[in-house]
Fold this protein.
Amino acid sequence: MESVQALRQYFETGATQSYTFRLAQLEKLKASVQQHEVDIFEALHKDLRKSKEECWITENGFFLSEIGVAIKQLKSWMQPKKVTTNLLNFPSKSYIVPEPLGVTLIISPWNYPFQLLLTPLIGAIAAGNCVVLKPSELAPATAAVIKKIIESTFDKNYILYVEGDGATVVPELMNNFVFDHVFYTGSTAVGKIIYSLAAKNLVPVTLELGGKSPCVVTANAHIDIAAKRIAMPKFSNAGQMCVAPDYILVHRSVKDALIDALKKNIQSFFGDNPQQSDYYGRIINAKQFDRLCQYLQDGKILMGGQFDHTDLYIAPTLIEITDLNKGIMQDEIFGPILPIITYDDDAAALKIIAQHKNPLAMYVFTNNTTEEQQWIKAVPFGGGCINNASLHLTNHRLPFGGRGASGLGNYHGRFSFDTFSHKKAIMKTPNWLDLALKYPPYTGKLSLFKKAIK
Ligand code: NAD
């Protein structure tokens, strides 16, 4: 843990605090990511068979867009914010100063192994922190490129890159060093471990977790567009996306039309044999592959269902589900298998959604604005879309995060800066006025207090 102690010492010198320092680090990181573009493409292809285009939208391009916002906005984010003062404290002035938290730990998963480690880092640097970065061990090619980027860009007393098996490395880090914040992205099960490790020392956490995100297609939806907008994110990265539509609830009156439109669009995206498509990914490893293949027995296959173990390939699959007790409707799927469940009335659909409380995302497809609002209000969830799926996370002006079992806290754009900052509240009171009224004895003052404090 000596190496992490060095971050504490470095942080305490105050070196990370100035605007010029923070800006320079963001610019260096941006340039390094740009320089390593080809390495990043190759690594993500190796780990997950991602195409360059998909990498750009969801990994390095996404990262560059976020860091561009941070570089542009940093000065204004760092400004103390004046707020009005209550009457009792007249003539004081009040303001909020964003301050770095200190030494932070960022832990990421394997599905967007580049972006999910480095996007939180933007917020941590912008807010003036030192950082320990812990990537997923399950996307090794991408981890190797990130290591190269980080170690060639930053001093290890400022940003420290630590690899290894999460179950060993993370408890070792968190039991031997009191971090000022832990930012974790990954499964809900491991999120609970992180939360309890942090609780021992009252370390604040951000938890970006998963869950079963429902996608409702009502009788009033534009079916062709809905099918296209669902199929794209569901089968991007072979469905290994935290905000992918996990399952579809479709109104009986439009079920057949939706299934036809989904089939047509999947075929047009990936051709007759998606295994040959340059734009269709692979499952990360055999363990995930075997878990996913079991779900193929949980309903009636409407399209796809083929798999190839040697290539970690599972075809984009539509599966009709009638038995909600099957595994496919118990766990987060996190793969290219899309269950379709028919509903007749909204109450029945809401009951199904309620079996997995607080999903990370929810999507509603309808052309009826009253209906759209009813669905959005009826379900507590992290964030979502109306007549779209998953793309809300690409708007940096929206906070991205879950609630309850799907997470705690949020980030992206300005929200990342806020997540990695403490908001220090300051009131400054001048000396030219000091009303005796405020001080004891309070005899006869209650009615005045009642006027001033209400
Ligand atoms: P995971 O929880 O297995 O691993 C995530 C990280 O935790 C890795 O760095 C890993 O090394 C570490 N880790 C693993 N076991 C640990 C342990 N016992 N103690 C401490 N650390 C440990 O998650 P995953 O399988 O890599 O990712 C898939 C999950 O992540 C899905 O549930 C998905 O929904 C979720 N996810 C959420 C988001 C989001 O933004 N909300 C984004 C991507 C993925």
Summary: The chain is about 40% helix and 20% strand. The chain has a mean pLDDT of 97.
